[in-house]
Design brief:
The chain is α/β, with parallel strands linked by helices. Helices cover 34% and strands 19% of the residues. A hairpin with an 8-residue loop joins strand 10 and strand 11.
Protein backbone atom coordinates (compact mmCIF):
# COMPACT_ATOMS: atom_id res chain seq x y z
CA UNK A 1 0.00 0.00 0.00
CA UNK A 2 2.80 2.42 0.94
CA UNK A 3 5.51 1.06 -1.35
CA UNK A 4 6.08 4.41 -3.10
CA UNK A 5 5.94 6.56 0.04
CA UNK A 6 8.94 8.61 1.16
CA UNK A 7 7.61 9.00 4.69
CA UNK A 8 4.63 7.57 6.56
CA UNK A 9 3.01 9.46 9.45
CA UNK A 10 0.75 7.27 11.57
CA UNK A 11 -2.01 8.22 13.97
CA UNK A 12 -1.36 7.26 17.62
CA UNK A 13 -4.18 4.73 17.38
CA UNK A 14 -2.40 2.78 14.63
CA UNK A 15 -0.08 0.04 15.97
CA UNK A 16 3.26 -0.13 14.17
CA UNK A 17 2.82 -3.90 13.86
CA UNK A 18 -0.19 -3.83 11.51
CA UNK A 19 0.52 -5.34 8.10
CA UNK A 20 0.91 -2.32 5.77
CA UNK A 21 2.95 -0.33 8.28
CA UNK A 22 5.17 -3.26 9.24
CA UNK A 23 5.74 -4.05 5.57
CA UNK A 24 6.76 -0.46 4.84
CA UNK A 25 9.18 -0.44 7.78
CA UNK A 26 10.70 -3.70 6.58
CA UNK A 27 11.40 -1.99 3.24
CA UNK A 28 13.20 0.86 4.98
CA UNK A 29 10.45 3.45 4.56
CA UNK A 30 10.54 5.80 7.57
CA UNK A 31 7.45 5.62 9.78
CA UNK A 32 6.90 8.35 12.37
CA UNK A 33 4.03 9.68 14.45
CA UNK A 34 2.42 13.10 14.60
CA UNK A 35 4.49 14.03 17.67
CA UNK A 36 7.73 13.42 15.80
CA UNK A 37 6.43 15.37 12.80
CA UNK A 38 5.53 18.31 15.03
CA UNK A 39 8.98 18.28 16.62
CA UNK A 40 10.68 18.28 13.22
CA UNK A 41 8.51 21.12 11.92
CA UNK A 42 9.15 23.19 15.03
CA UNK A 43 12.91 22.74 14.85
CA UNK A 44 13.18 23.39 11.13
CA UNK A 45 10.70 26.21 10.58
CA UNK A 46 10.39 28.15 13.84
CA UNK A 47 13.48 30.08 14.92
CA UNK A 48 14.11 30.17 18.63
CA UNK A 49 15.50 33.05 20.62
CA UNK A 50 19.25 33.66 20.31
CA UNK A 51 19.33 31.05 17.56
CA UNK A 52 18.31 28.24 19.92
CA UNK A 53 15.42 25.89 19.23
CA UNK A 54 12.29 26.47 21.30
CA UNK A 55 12.31 24.06 24.28
CA UNK A 56 9.77 21.27 24.59
CA UNK A 57 8.48 20.43 28.06
CA UNK A 58 6.87 16.98 27.91
CA UNK A 59 4.89 14.88 30.38
CA UNK A 60 3.99 11.19 30.22
CA UNK A 61 2.80 8.52 32.63
CA UNK A 62 -0.06 6.09 33.04
CA UNK A 63 -2.09 8.58 35.08
CA UNK A 64 -2.02 12.30 35.79
CA UNK A 65 -0.64 13.45 32.43
CA UNK A 66 -3.39 15.91 31.58
CA UNK A 67 -3.56 17.51 35.02
CA UNK A 68 0.23 17.85 35.26
CA UNK A 69 0.64 19.23 31.75
CA UNK A 70 -2.19 21.73 32.16
CA UNK A 71 -0.87 22.83 35.56
CA UNK A 72 2.63 23.25 34.13
CA UNK A 73 1.22 25.40 31.34
CA UNK A 74 -0.67 27.46 33.92
CA UNK A 75 2.55 28.03 35.90
CA UNK A 76 4.56 29.11 32.89
CA UNK A 77 1.87 31.53 31.76
CA UNK A 78 1.58 32.84 35.31
CA UNK A 79 5.29 33.68 34.99
CA UNK A 80 4.60 35.66 31.80
CA UNK A 81 5.74 33.07 29.27
CA UNK A 82 4.06 32.48 25.93
CA UNK A 83 3.37 28.78 25.58
CA UNK A 84 2.04 26.50 22.88
CA UNK A 85 0.05 23.67 24.44
CA UNK A 86 -1.03 20.37 22.89
CA UNK A 87 -0.15 16.78 22.14
CA UNK A 88 -2.33 14.13 23.72
CA UNK A 89 -4.58 16.88 25.09
CA UNK A 90 -6.37 19.64 23.23
CA UNK A 91 -5.44 20.18 19.60
CA UNK A 92 -2.86 18.18 17.69
CA UNK A 93 0.58 19.66 18.23
CA UNK A 94 1.20 20.02 14.50
CA UNK A 95 -1.93 22.17 14.27
CA UNK A 96 -0.73 24.46 17.04
CA UNK A 97 2.75 24.74 15.55
CA UNK A 98 1.40 25.56 12.10
CA UNK A 99 -0.63 28.34 13.71
CA UNK A 100 2.64 29.73 15.10
CA UNK A 101 4.21 29.63 11.66
CA UNK A 102 1.18 31.44 10.23
CA UNK A 103 1.46 34.07 12.95
CA UNK A 104 -1.84 33.21 14.59
CA UNK A 105 -2.27 33.69 18.31
CA UNK A 106 -2.66 30.55 20.36
CA UNK A 107 -5.58 30.19 22.80
CA UNK A 108 -3.15 30.87 25.67
CA UNK A 109 -2.35 34.28 24.21
CA UNK A 110 -5.94 35.09 23.32
CA UNK A 111 -7.25 34.46 26.81
CA UNK A 112 -5.14 37.32 28.12
CA UNK A 113 -3.28 35.32 30.76
CA UNK A 114 0.11 35.96 29.13
CA UNK A 115 1.79 39.17 30.26
CA UNK A 116 4.00 39.33 27.18
CA UNK A 117 3.46 42.27 24.82
CA UNK A 118 1.33 41.38 21.83
CA UNK A 119 4.23 41.81 19.39
CA UNK A 120 6.17 39.03 21.10
CA UNK A 121 3.37 36.48 21.27
CA UNK A 122 3.88 34.96 17.83
CA UNK A 123 7.13 33.34 19.02
CA UNK A 124 6.54 30.94 21.92
CA UNK A 125 8.92 30.49 24.81
CA UNK A 126 7.97 26.83 25.30
CA UNK A 127 6.05 23.99 23.72
CA UNK A 128 4.25 22.21 26.56
CA UNK A 129 3.03 18.77 25.55
CA UNK A 130 1.28 15.77 27.00
CA UNK A 131 2.52 12.59 25.35
CA UNK A 132 1.06 9.09 25.45
CA UNK A 133 2.76 5.74 25.05
CA UNK A 134 1.11 5.41 21.64
CA UNK A 135 2.71 8.68 20.51
CA UNK A 136 6.09 7.75 21.95
CA UNK A 137 6.19 4.48 20.01
CA UNK A 138 6.69 6.40 16.77
CA UNK A 139 9.37 8.96 17.61
CA UNK A 140 12.88 9.18 16.22
CA UNK A 141 14.47 12.51 17.12
CA UNK A 142 11.90 13.93 19.58
CA UNK A 143 13.92 15.42 22.41
CA UNK A 144 12.25 17.41 25.17
CA UNK A 145 14.46 19.78 27.13
CA UNK A 146 12.55 18.89 30.29
CA UNK A 147 10.52 15.70 30.58
CA UNK A 148 8.66 13.92 33.34
CA UNK A 149 7.60 10.32 33.82
CA UNK A 150 4.87 10.41 36.46
CA UNK A 151 4.14 6.74 37.04
CA UNK A 152 3.79 3.39 35.31
CA UNK A 153 0.88 1.06 36.04
CA UNK A 154 -0.64 -1.54 33.72
CA UNK A 155 -2.68 0.19 31.01
CA UNK A 156 -3.57 -0.47 27.39
CA UNK A 157 -2.78 -4.14 27.92
CA UNK A 158 -5.19 -4.77 25.06
CA UNK A 159 -2.48 -3.21 22.86
CA UNK A 160 0.67 -4.06 24.79
CA UNK A 161 0.68 -7.77 25.45
CA UNK A 162 3.55 -7.44 27.93
CA UNK A 163 4.36 -4.76 30.49
CA UNK A 164 7.90 -4.59 29.13
CA UNK A 165 6.62 -3.23 25.81
CA UNK A 166 4.53 -0.61 27.59
CA UNK A 167 7.48 0.45 29.77
CA UNK A 168 9.74 0.67 26.73
CA UNK A 169 7.30 3.01 25.02
CA UNK A 170 7.19 5.28 28.08
CA UNK A 171 11.00 5.29 28.29
CA UNK A 172 11.21 6.83 24.82
CA UNK A 173 10.39 10.21 26.36
CA UNK A 174 13.94 10.52 27.73
CA UNK A 175 16.08 8.35 25.44
CA UNK A 176 17.11 11.29 23.21
CA UNK A 177 17.80 13.66 26.11
CA UNK A 178 21.37 14.79 26.76
CA UNK A 179 23.40 16.18 29.64
CA UNK A 180 21.99 19.70 29.23
CA UNK A 181 18.41 18.39 29.52
CA UNK A 182 16.36 17.52 32.62
CA UNK A 183 14.24 14.55 33.64
CA UNK A 184 11.76 14.55 36.53
CA UNK A 185 10.84 11.13 37.97
CA UNK A 186 8.50 9.74 40.63
CA UNK A 187 10.74 8.39 43.39
CA UNK A 188 7.83 6.44 44.90
CA UNK A 189 7.00 4.38 41.81
CA UNK A 190 8.99 1.12 41.58
CA UNK A 191 8.39 0.74 37.84
CA UNK A 192 9.76 4.23 37.21
CA UNK A 193 12.79 3.54 39.40
CA UNK A 194 13.43 0.28 37.56
CA UNK A 195 13.53 2.19 34.27
CA UNK A 196 15.86 4.74 35.84
CA UNK A 197 18.20 1.96 36.96
CA UNK A 198 18.08 0.30 33.56
CA UNK A 199 18.96 3.42 31.59
CA UNK A 200 20.99 5.67 33.91
CA UNK A 201 23.00 3.60 36.39
CA UNK A 202 25.58 2.77 33.73
CA UNK A 203 27.41 6.07 34.20
CA UNK A 204 26.64 7.47 30.74
CA UNK A 205 28.11 11.00 30.91
CA UNK A 206 25.63 12.34 28.36
CA UNK A 207 22.49 11.46 30.32
CA UNK A 208 19.99 14.13 31.42
CA UNK A 209 20.18 15.60 34.90
CA UNK A 210 17.56 13.77 36.97
CA UNK A 211 15.38 15.26 39.70
CA UNK A 212 12.67 13.48 41.67
CA UNK A 213 9.42 14.11 43.46
CA UNK A 214 8.26 12.06 46.43
CA UNK A 215 5.45 11.81 48.98
CA UNK A 216 7.50 9.54 51.25
CA UNK A 217 11.13 10.68 51.51
CA UNK A 218 13.56 13.52 50.99
CA UNK A 219 14.93 13.65 47.44
CA UNK A 220 16.84 15.92 45.13
CA UNK A 221 13.79 17.66 43.75
CA UNK A 222 10.45 18.19 45.51
CA UNK A 223 9.17 16.18 48.45
CA UNK A 224 6.34 16.06 50.98
CA UNK A 225 7.17 16.01 54.69
CA UNK A 226 5.15 16.90 57.79
CA UNK A 227 2.29 18.36 55.77
CA UNK A 228 4.51 20.62 53.68
CA UNK A 229 6.19 20.59 50.28
CA UNK A 230 9.96 21.11 50.38
CA UNK A 231 12.35 21.82 47.56
CA UNK A 232 15.92 20.86 46.63
CA UNK A 233 16.11 22.47 43.20
CA UNK A 234 18.34 24.87 41.26
CA UNK A 235 17.69 28.49 42.14
CA UNK A 236 16.13 27.58 45.49
CA UNK A 237 17.94 27.25 48.81
CA UNK A 238 18.62 23.57 49.66
CA UNK A 239 15.78 22.12 51.72
CA UNK A 240 13.69 25.24 51.17
CA UNK A 241 10.04 25.30 52.24
CA UNK A 242 7.81 25.79 49.20
CA UNK A 243 4.30 25.75 50.67
CA UNK A 244 1.90 23.88 52.93
CA UNK A 245 0.22 21.01 51.11
CA UNK A 246 -3.21 22.19 52.30
CA UNK A 247 -2.71 25.33 50.20
CA UNK A 248 -2.67 23.28 47.00
CA UNK A 249 -6.14 23.67 45.54
CA UNK A 250 -6.35 20.31 43.77
CA UNK A 251 -6.84 17.55 46.32
CA UNK A 252 -5.91 13.89 46.56
CA UNK A 253 -2.65 12.00 46.96
CA UNK A 254 -2.24 11.65 43.21
CA UNK A 255 -2.74 15.38 42.72
CA UNK A 256 -0.03 16.08 45.28
CA UNK A 257 2.28 14.05 43.04
CA UNK A 258 1.02 15.87 39.93
CA UNK A 259 1.56 19.22 41.64
CA UNK A 260 5.12 18.38 42.66
CA UNK A 261 5.97 17.11 39.17
CA UNK A 262 4.63 20.25 37.51
CA UNK A 263 6.39 22.47 40.03
CA UNK A 264 9.71 20.70 39.52
CA UNK A 265 9.47 21.10 35.75
CA UNK A 266 8.47 24.75 36.06
CA UNK A 267 11.37 25.56 38.40
CA UNK A 268 13.79 23.86 36.00
CA UNK A 269 12.37 26.11 33.27
CA UNK A 270 13.22 29.15 35.44
CA UNK A 271 9.67 29.81 36.57
CA UNK A 272 9.86 31.98 39.72
CA UNK A 273 8.88 30.13 42.93
CA UNK A 274 6.20 32.76 43.64
CA UNK A 275 4.50 31.96 40.32
CA UNK A 276 4.63 28.26 41.17
CA UNK A 277 3.06 28.85 44.58
CA UNK A 278 0.33 31.12 43.26
CA UNK A 279 -0.52 28.66 40.50
CA UNK A 280 -0.86 25.79 42.97
CA UNK A 281 -3.22 27.90 45.07
CA UNK A 282 -5.35 28.88 42.05
CA UNK A 283 -5.45 25.88 39.69
CA UNK A 284 -8.73 24.03 40.18
CA UNK A 285 -8.05 20.85 38.24
CA UNK A 286 -9.67 19.30 35.19
CA UNK A 287 -13.13 17.98 34.50
CA UNK A 288 -13.67 14.25 35.14
CA UNK A 289 -10.64 13.97 37.47
CA UNK A 290 -11.92 13.63 41.06
CA UNK A 291 -14.40 16.38 40.20
CA UNK A 292 -16.89 17.36 42.88
CA UNK A 293 -20.38 17.12 41.37
CA UNK A 294 -22.55 17.95 44.37
CA UNK A 295 -23.39 17.16 47.96
CA UNK A 296 -26.91 15.90 48.58
CA UNK A 297 -28.31 14.95 51.98
CA UNK A 298 -24.80 14.69 53.38
CA UNK A 299 -23.54 12.41 50.58
CA UNK A 300 -20.77 13.67 48.27
CA UNK A 301 -20.79 12.67 44.59
CA UNK A 302 -17.44 12.61 42.77
CA UNK A 303 -16.87 12.25 39.02
CA UNK A 304 -13.58 10.48 38.27
CA UNK A 305 -14.56 9.17 34.84
CA UNK A 306 -10.97 9.65 33.66
CA UNK A 307 -10.00 6.81 36.01
CA UNK A 308 -9.81 4.37 33.12
CA UNK A 309 -7.30 1.90 34.58
CA UNK A 310 -6.73 0.09 37.85
CA UNK A 311 -3.76 2.25 38.86
CA UNK A 312 -5.83 5.41 38.57
CA UNK A 313 -8.56 3.95 40.77
CA UNK A 314 -6.01 2.99 43.43
CA UNK A 315 -4.95 6.65 43.66
CA UNK A 316 -8.56 7.82 43.68
CA UNK A 317 -9.62 5.50 46.51
CA UNK A 318 -6.51 6.46 48.51
CA UNK A 319 -7.56 10.11 48.28
CA UNK A 320 -10.59 9.64 50.55
CA UNK A 321 -10.92 9.05 54.27
CA UNK A 322 -14.70 8.80 54.04
CA UNK A 323 -16.55 5.51 53.39
CA UNK A 324 -16.91 4.96 49.65
CA UNK A 325 -19.53 3.57 47.34
CA UNK A 326 -17.73 2.87 44.08
CA UNK A 327 -19.28 2.83 40.61
CA UNK A 328 -16.99 0.93 38.26
CA UNK A 329 -16.94 -1.04 35.05
CA UNK A 330 -16.93 -0.56 31.30
CA UNK A 331 -14.76 -2.04 28.60
CA UNK A 332 -11.89 -4.07 30.00
CA UNK A 333 -8.34 -2.99 29.10
CA UNK A 334 -6.92 -6.30 30.33
CA UNK A 335 -6.66 -4.88 33.84
CA UNK A 336 -5.91 -6.88 36.97
CA UNK A 337 -8.77 -5.88 39.26
CA UNK A 338 -7.50 -8.08 42.09
CA UNK A 339 -4.96 -5.32 42.80
CA UNK A 340 -7.87 -3.41 44.35
CA UNK A 341 -8.79 -6.08 46.91
CA UNK A 342 -7.02 -4.67 49.97
CA UNK A 343 -8.13 -1.09 49.36
CA UNK A 344 -11.69 -2.11 48.61
CA UNK A 345 -11.91 -4.23 51.76
CA UNK A 346 -10.70 -1.27 53.84
CA UNK A 347 -12.55 1.65 52.27
CA UNK A 348 -15.40 0.61 49.96
CA UNK A 349 -18.85 -0.21 51.38
CA UNK A 350 -20.28 -1.35 48.07
CA UNK A 351 -19.42 -1.53 44.37
CA UNK A 352 -22.03 -0.88 41.69
CA UNK A 353 -20.91 -2.44 38.41
CA UNK A 354 -21.78 -1.50 34.83
CA UNK A 355 -20.63 -2.52 31.39
CA UNK A 356 -18.79 -5.38 29.75
CA UNK A 357 -16.22 -5.89 32.51
CA UNK A 358 -18.74 -6.07 35.35
CA UNK A 359 -18.57 -9.86 35.61
CA UNK A 360 -14.77 -9.88 35.69
CA UNK A 361 -14.69 -7.20 38.39
CA UNK A 362 -17.31 -9.07 40.45
CA UNK A 363 -15.22 -12.23 40.24
CA UNK A 364 -12.15 -10.33 41.47
CA UNK A 365 -13.78 -8.29 44.25
CA UNK A 366 -17.18 -9.76 45.02
CA UNK A 367 -16.02 -11.57 48.16
CA UNK A 368 -14.48 -8.49 49.84
CA UNK A 369 -17.45 -6.08 49.74
CA UNK A 370 -21.04 -5.91 48.58
CA UNK A 371 -21.03 -6.06 44.78
CA UNK A 372 -24.14 -5.26 42.73
CA UNK A 373 -24.66 -5.43 38.97
CA UNK A 374 -26.52 -2.46 37.44
CA UNK A 375 -28.03 -2.37 33.98
CA UNK A 376 -26.74 1.14 33.26
CA UNK A 377 -25.20 4.21 34.86
CA UNK A 378 -28.54 5.68 35.95
CA UNK A 379 -29.43 2.53 37.85
CA UNK A 380 -25.95 2.45 39.39
CA UNK A 381 -26.47 5.98 40.74
CA UNK A 382 -29.91 5.07 42.08
CA UNK A 383 -28.60 1.95 43.81
CA UNK A 384 -25.66 3.91 45.20
CA UNK A 385 -27.97 6.46 46.71
CA UNK A 386 -30.03 3.76 48.38
CA UNK A 387 -26.87 2.52 50.14
CA UNK A 388 -25.27 5.86 50.95
CA UNK A 389 -25.47 7.43 54.39
CA UNK A 390 -24.55 10.92 55.54
CA UNK A 391 -20.77 11.32 55.33
CA UNK A 392 -20.32 8.77 52.53
CA UNK A 393 -18.83 9.44 49.10
CA UNK A 394 -20.27 8.03 45.88
CA UNK A 395 -17.30 7.77 43.53
CA UNK A 396 -17.48 7.09 39.80
CA UNK A 397 -14.02 5.72 39.04
CA UNK A 398 -14.53 2.99 36.45
CA UNK A 399 -11.08 1.32 36.06
CA UNK A 400 -12.17 0.65 32.47
CA UNK A 401 -12.57 2.29 29.10
CA UNK A 402 -15.96 3.76 28.26
CA UNK A 403 -16.55 2.65 24.69
CA UNK A 404 -19.00 -0.16 25.45
CA UNK A 405 -21.70 2.28 26.64
CA UNK A 406 -20.46 5.82 25.95
CA UNK A 407 -18.71 7.86 23.29
CA UNK A 408 -15.68 8.42 25.53
CA UNK A 409 -14.78 9.04 29.17
CA UNK A 410 -16.00 12.64 28.87
CA UNK A 411 -19.43 11.50 27.71
CA UNK A 412 -19.55 9.04 30.62
CA UNK A 413 -18.60 11.75 33.10
CA UNK A 414 -21.09 14.26 31.72
CA UNK A 415 -23.91 11.70 31.87
CA UNK A 416 -22.98 10.87 35.46
CA UNK A 417 -23.07 14.54 36.40
CA UNK A 418 -26.44 15.01 34.70
CA UNK A 419 -27.93 12.02 36.52
CA UNK A 420 -26.58 13.19 39.87
CA UNK A 421 -27.73 16.79 39.39
CA UNK A 422 -31.25 15.55 38.63
CA UNK A 423 -31.50 13.73 41.97
CA UNK A 424 -34.10 15.34 44.21
CA UNK A 425 -34.05 15.76 47.95
CA UNK A 426 -35.93 12.96 49.65
CA UNK A 427 -36.33 10.86 46.48
CA UNK A 428 -34.50 7.57 46.35
Amino acid sequence: VFSSADLIVVSPGVPLEIGPVASARAKGIPVIGELELAFRIANSLIPGKQGQSIPFLAVTGSNGKSTTTTLLDYMMRKAGCHTVFGGNIGNALTEEILKCIAGEESPAAKDGRSSLPRSARSLPDFFIVEVSSFQLEAIDSFRPHISSLLNITPDHMDRYHAMAAYRDAKANIFLNQRSNDFLVLNADDPEVLDLYDLHFRSGNPDKPKVYFFSRTREVEGLYFKEGKVWCNMPGVSPGAYLMHADEIRIKGVHNLENAMAAAAMALLADCPPDAVRESLKEFGGLEHRLELVRELEGVTYINDSKGTNVGAVVKSIESFREPLILIAGGRDKAGDFSVLRDLVSQKVKAILLIGEASGKIRDALGDVTETVMAKDLAEAVTLSRLRAKKGDVVLLSPACASFDMFRDYEDRGKQFKKIVMELKNGNA
